[in-house]
Amino acid sequence: MRHGGQILVDQLSIFGVERVFSVPGESFLAALDGLHGSKIQNVVCRHEGGAAMMAEADGKLTGKPGIAFVTRGPGATNASAGVHVARQDSTPMILFVGQIARDHRDREVFQEVDYRAMFGPLAKWVAEIDQTERIPEYIARAFAVATSGRPGPVVLALPEDMLSSEAEVQDCKGPAMLLAGDLNLAAERCIAWLGEAERPLIVAGGPHWSPETARELAQFAEAQRVPVALSFRRQDYLDNRHPAYCGDLNVGMNPALGQIVAEADRVLLLGTRFGDIETRGFELVDPVTTDKRFFQVHADPDEISHLWQADFNVTATAMDFVSALARHGALSERSLHWQQKARSAYTGWITPKPTPGDVKMEQVVRWLSDHLPETAIVTNGAGNYAAWLHRYFEYKGFRTQLAPTSGSMGYGFPAAVAASLRFPDKTVVCLAGDGCFQMTLNEMSTAIQHGAKPIVIVVNNGQYGTIRMHQEKRFTNRVSGTELANPDFAALAVAYGGQGEVVTTQSAFADAFERAHASGKLAVIELLVDPEALTAGQTLSEIRASAN
Predict the structure, then answer these.
(1) Is domain 184-349 given the CATH code 3.40.50.1220 in the classification?
(2) Sheet strand arrangement including 455-460
(3) Are 499 and 524 in contact (CB under 8 A)?
(4) What pLDDT digit, counting tens, does each position of 317-358 carry?
(5) Can you name the CATH fold of 2-167?
(6) Per-residue pLDDT tens for 214-232?
(7) What would you measure as the largest C-alpha separation in the chain, in angstroms?
(8) Angle at CA 401, nearest 5°, toward 400 and 402?
């Protein structure tokens, strides 16, 4: 006989869970008891949003469901931000939520929430475990749903009386191995289809990638002489120094790359949904009017023809299909001109454009790109500061980028904490805006407690930069709701037990970074940047002038 919390933890252990992220609550005390003495590390966070984002980042890094535990009511609503990231980013994740006792339902008791209704639009599956004996069954199904097809988040509610009750039940076996079908014929057809194109393009993204898949994609693209564009915030799927790489399809897209997308006559979609961000709001390619031809590969059959009517559709992971392509992709006789044109669009784009101020973001990011180890993990949330990172940083290896395709502010720092815990020997750098960092900087306490040591570079321009940019374009010189009063970020890091330093001139950055790295603990480098340097492409004055 075991109580439900012990049954749950034992089942997580069988499924290979090594770490969970949590904010404790009285609604799941039995689960906390089950974790006591287990081999599963419980990373105790300061806010449920941070815990859920850490779990999501851990799922990205491992390809296995990241696990978070939060309490009922406000704990669950706080955690919903991380669930949304996991859904839009196709990340496997399981969120366990404490729940009221079963015999108190529908009385609007303390912190009662209908989680099926609340999380239904956000998660792949939402359920509530009513019987202690069925905990192993639900856990097994949660792992299967979170990782199948297009991966995503699962939410399981745990009534406290169910979790505290005892039962005698057998554990479920570990997750079954999925066997891929024979993709050789489809790969051969794809290669022949690409061979008929004058201006082919590969767009890669989505879930189910690996270091080997990145290498095979590079091998195939080089042999076929086809340019490769990567989808939003998937820049680490191909070494950016590779001659086939032509850039990423992001919010502030390179106009020359947008032209390449518009001119391409055949597009191979590898794992990506090729949505509004990648098509600049469907301006470059419209699902209704386009005469462009597609070959779509996606692991979820429900995504096939969701937007694009393709010549051929293949239900398979990008990992399996790219491997088949690499086996069959002999050297093409196609001219290199088209690939070289696409590559030139990228190399021109990453030539630094000077910005005003004594600290220049284009130089900071280029320094990081040139000096960080190739295995370093770089994280960010959302904000204009990220445009410099996406434009000027060259990612060299798979899973060195952690960034939310959902555009969630506050994500970068919890992701950096999770990455540092997962890979303690790697350099982990978080780039964050002053507004972005303040959404989750309380997790500095979590980092110190559990030994995470990311280096955070805070871009302090005293404003919500992205919103200010849009505001100036539409309501010039009418600043409202976008100014920020900020703390001394460096002093705050020291108060938490970390290292902190303020940089006011460009020449001081490199030495500050080296000191942060040498400290061997959480470090914050605060960059005081000129508010005039509002974007990577236009100054504040230029935006105002163009709006008039």
Answers:
(1) yes
(2) 401-402, 377-380, 428-433, 455-460, 523-528, 499-503
(3) yes
(4) 999 999 999 998 788 889 999 999 999 999 999 999 999 999
(5) Rossmann fold (3.40.50)
(6) 999 999 999 999 999 999 9
(7) 74
(8) 125
